Amino acid sequence: MIITKIKLNNFLSYYGEIEFDFSKGRNIVLAENNIGKSNLFNAFYWALFGDIFDKSKGQINVDLNKNVALVNKMSIEEAESKELKEILCSVQLNIDEYQNDTDLWEEIEIKRHVDLYKQDNEWLMSSSYLEIEYYLNRNKEVFTNKEVVLLKITDMFPANIRPYIWFQGEDIDKLIDLAKGRDFRDAIKSISYFPKYEQLESNAKNALNYVTKVKEKKEKKQESGNIEFERFQRKIDVKRKELEKEEKRLFDYEQRLVDVKSVISDLENKLDVFDDFQEIDKQRTQYKTEKEKWSTIQKEIESRQSKLFKSKWILKGIGTLVKDADSHIREYEKELNNGAVTIEVPDKAFLEKCIAENECLVCGSDGNTILKIIKDRLVSQEEAFKRKDKNQILNNNLIRLFSFKNEIQREVVTISDEMTRIDDEKEESLKQFIKASKLHQEADQRINNLAEKNGITVGVAIKQNKDNKAGYQTHTRNKSTYETTIQSLKFNIKRITSELEELKAKKAKSFKSNVSEIVEIEIEKVLLKMFKAISNVKDKELDRLLESVESRANKQFRKMTDHNKSITGKITINRVSYEIDLLDKNDERVIYSTGYKSILKMCIINAIIKLNEEISTSYPFISDAPTSSLSPKHSHAYYSSIDFDQSIIFTKDFDKDVIKDLERDKSVTKLYHLTVEGSGNMNDTFTLKNTLKS
Amino acid sequence: MEHLLDKISHLRPKIEKEYYASIINRYSTARNQNSLRTFSHKWQPYAWAAILGFINDRRRKLEGSTDSFGEFGILKGRDGNPTVFKSLLMLVIAKENQWKEYLLDPQAYLTTIDEYANGGFDWISEMLEEKGEKYFDEFENFLRELENRQ
Questions:
Q1: I need a surface site. Which of A109, A291, A519, A647 has the fewest CB within 10 A?
Q2: pTM value?
């Protein structure tokens, strides 16, 4: 079965009509997150089943949840501006199927649409309409009856197989738990041909039981009155009831064992997870302490900066001006020194004495000739004294100001270096703070994810773990009891079966009439042989299937992990418990990371689907971001290893080199790249298709 | 005889009333938890503004009514910073041609510092206008201003 085309009209982020052609082989749709990949995945799902997948709510049936914003927002805006009253939203799928056995060629066109109509100024969404146009060897038939259409779709895509062939990346964990044998058996039942063998075996057994019943009825009738026969028959009936009872108990205990193993596996997971939880929690506390330490250091540095800024750093840049001031002071000092005031002798007292005595006491000239000279000398001497005092003050001031220069220069010269050093310290502490914050946030996120995924309540995790440990011990004890009981029941059953056979032989010898006329005796023999043969074939077929799944899964696993030589184990399915493990040469369990667990699961699922493809109808494999938890290298390796008849994969964007590789790769038949147009606002942003390979 | 430095210490610097409210009070009052990032004394924004005035060559005579945070000597007192005090005195000598006369006129000396501080307040005011009125609420921007100095 091949999906050849999907045509969307105003569906979610797809504005107007947009078509994607698909063909056999690998069809890849690349896009960054939130561009429209999941919307395209939802288009397939909605067209066929009326559901869309919401990350937080899971599958939602749109007809039952009319508040789902299915119709493209831009088309609504456009309708508003053009005053239109109705908008059509639809998805059309075209599927081709060639029936090998009948040599018939079928072409199917499935179309689902809703109408958005305006009523009382409000947009309302109709229920969806579904129709199928069916061409059998080009003869057209149209089905519009919803029930008939749904039956056709269910016939094409059986419900039990859907989760395995069409899934969101996030769902892979829910699909299969490798440690739970029951999950793998469910997967085999859902997606492999093996249940047909089980059905065949069951039919053979029912036929055998029926014939035995008829045979014994006839024997009883014919041997009526034969006391010995009746005695053996009674014993046989009792033994048979005993056998039935023990078989029922065995079945019951086997079921209990499966259940308890599943519970133990869950608890083992939880206990393992708790170890991780504790380790991450320890790291989280460390990072928190580290974060707080760097925050305190930051505050301390800022406080230091603030103090230095107020006391010193505000002086940054005054160095040149202080030098100028220094040179001005020096010049003035020189000037003052050059103009030093000299006081001529004789001094004031001597001159005043000359005036008093009216003669020059130095040369003896009389007062009349010398008095004016002496008086002038006195005035100039007075002025010289004043100048001397002023110069003294100026000098004192200059000396003090001059002494400032060195102190200021000493401070100023270190500012830049000090600022740079503290800034570096601050930058480093900020870097460390951001690093610790990021690690703390990541650890917090990891803890929360782990808690959410494993039902751990962060505040009471230790108590939960204690309960889990106690539960684990109880269930392990129960498991051991069940295993012993099963052993003993099997032994009993073997004994009873053997006793039953003996009784049957004795009963046969007790016949007095000619029982050879009872045809059912021969039929019973043939049916018993047939049942044993079918049972044998079924067991061998199961072995073959498991071997084949192992071989395919290993081949893909090796291809995907080729670059990591440390992953050397072999995927092995336990033939009794159906648990799946990666075992080394000595059959020891290989320890591997969660990422590899996802790869292993994908390989197992792909192997079963591929096996199914070989003997019955092939289904298109459609997956939205199946590798979202993997690295780009693993993602690319995964896509390269897929070899279904048709796969349609929506994946995160790759580097240009990888895209070039995909373009060159012949097994990649279609390659699309999605982008968006618009401002990012839902009302004017829509998905665009770019065809890279058609 | 009292020295210039002693005389000037007893004089009161003058600040235009508007700048006193918008800058002195705003940046020297602990307003929130980040009070470390603001000045802790009123003389500090005055000194900051004066230095900005000197290094950016911004000087303007004071107009209108004025206010004061106290005596200029606070700068070299217990809660002051003698280096800043001395630097302001030195910067007058670097910039003012009449400084020699002012050595004997402390009031004229301090008026010169007031005028450069006034120019510095103008400069700060222009920065706030350009960068937003909360620009200097962030301590990082005080540091940025320092980094931009030659």
A1: A519
A2: 0.55
